[in-house]
Design brief:
Length: 324
Amino acid sequence: MADPVITTIEIILMVPVALILGVLFLFLFRKLNARFQWRVGPVIRMYSDLAPLIGKTRIWQPLYDILKLFGKDTIITDVAHRRLFVYSPYFSLLFAISAAFFIPFPGMELLSSVPYSLVIASYLIISSILFTILGPVASGSPWGAIGARREVELFLVSELSFVLSIFSIALSSGTLVISEIAGRGWSAPSILLSLTSGLLLFVAMLGKLHIKPFDMPEAEAEIVAGPYTEYSGKLLGIYFLSKTFLTYVLVALFIALILPPASTSIFWLPAWAFAAMVLVFLLTVVQVLNPRYRINNALYWYVKVVIPVGLVSFIIAFFIRVVA
């Protein structure tokens, strides 16, 4: 592990870095999504006649939307379990930010070299999502309860893909330390494993970020705002802020595990940024091309596709481990 002082500085710097990159990823997602549908979306450079009134750019539009919520009233219903309802967004944000500390960024090792950092990061991601379920359950709203139930069902199926992906990579590398996994070399079997595990992790990201066809918890036409129906003001803004950090965390984890050694050195920063943009682009393409699944369709799809790919991934990982 690096010098504690350097690590502490990196952790402090990582908070604004993760926030800025998360906002940029969400901006790119929204912009591409709009352009694919022949809409303008948030503009990079504001029209000259509007710039004096509303600013020169809308790159930070996802952040503006969150800040706007912080200026609105927060309403808590009488039927809500007040403490769990109020504290859940804060815990979700705390765990999402903490997960970023265990994933390397080009030029910053952070806590990725601590023992079992892969397990720790995985549990922090899971915990962040868990509190997006507990808060809505505590709201007392039927719409929140339905959204939370769908969130649980989606969580169960997407988590399978997530676990199969990260631990097949860990099995082939013989370690649960993310920095060691990110620094591994390339070989023909490892490239094949990256393809299968990358596909599994990509599908898990679709579920965790509620990207179509796995956006059942937020089906506005069916269940209003789903799990966030009773949330407003600052608490809703904190949930959106949590999703911003979680977006960065999942993108950074994908690159660290699937595309070594892009996270190991500052000199790899251009490659890291390019890989991140390609990943966001692919997520957007899937969002645009797919309708929303029903939960039984999602279960069937996972059984039909994810389990076979996961088995192939584990076979390849076992082969790499035995040969090594």
